[in-house]
Amino acid sequence: MSTNNDAAQTELVDTSNNVRLRTVTWGKPETHKQTPIVLVHGLASNAMLWEGAALALSSLGHLVTAVDLRGHGLSEKPDTGYDMQTVTKDLAGLLREIQKQNFVAPVVCGQSWGGNVVLELAHTQPQLVRGVVCVDGGFLELQNHFPNWDDCAQALRPPAIAGTRIDDFRKYLQRSHHDWPETGINGALACMEHLPDGTLRPWLNLERHMMILRGLWEHHPTRIYSQISVPVMFVPAEGANSVFNDSKRSAIELAEQLVPKVRVEWFSPADHDLHAQHPERFAKVVHAAITDGFF
Fold this sequence. Notes:
Number of strands: 10
Order of helices and strands: EEEHEHEHEHHHEEHEHEHH
Strand content: 15-25%
Shape: globular
CATH architecture of the domain at 9-141 and 220-291: 3-Layer(aba) Sandwich
Radius of gyration: 18 Å
Strand order of the largest sheet: 1-2-4-3-5-6-9-10
Helix content: 25-40%
Oligomer: single chain
CATH superfamily of the domain at 9-141 and 220-291: Alpha/Beta hydrolase fold, catalytic domain
């Protein structure tokens, strides 16, 4: 591991749930005394899409750890276990390992599907977290949009990216996300395995992607909102590259009504991956919620 405080440290952590997860950590416990923060990516994403936000949070004094969930990035990729309950148990196991070293419950941030995962974690394992942040997620209830699973599977099936040249994909990202910093572009590229022939393919294969999508389709956050005992902050996005803009306001209003301790910070206009697009602003919002006593 690096001895440089500014260098990210990578580790493969045994979760005691039959999978090892890759973590990337910015900062050191002896120098970063603010509340630790754990970052959880969305479906088909990876830990490094958080890099910009992690660097900003670390500069504010937080020990920051981002994770590749099972099947993603450089974590192990078993053939099963992609339902919401198992993925949440993976994350709980990781947090237990982290807390053996730090002895402090972190604020856990999750984006999109990861937002639903951290909400489920807050419901089932509240002792492991100081609170959770749901980044354009946590309100995703796909059956409201697709009552039939087959319709959901057809509509949200990922595009075929394997075989695309790395340089072409980078240029596509730069065109479609012209206001993203380089950390965001590089983080998006890290969702893919870079092959020797100059092409790429997703770390998360199609079969596992669809299993996760099915687990998200089966998840009903509104049924657990009122039972969550830790603070929850929703950070939804409005913009052309966001999700479910037509129903998001009402979904967030329902969460505000049902979650016992809740705060909402809208990003508008913003992409679905607002943490990659606006990393410094996102870091300030989370830091403020910690220092002003919400968490």
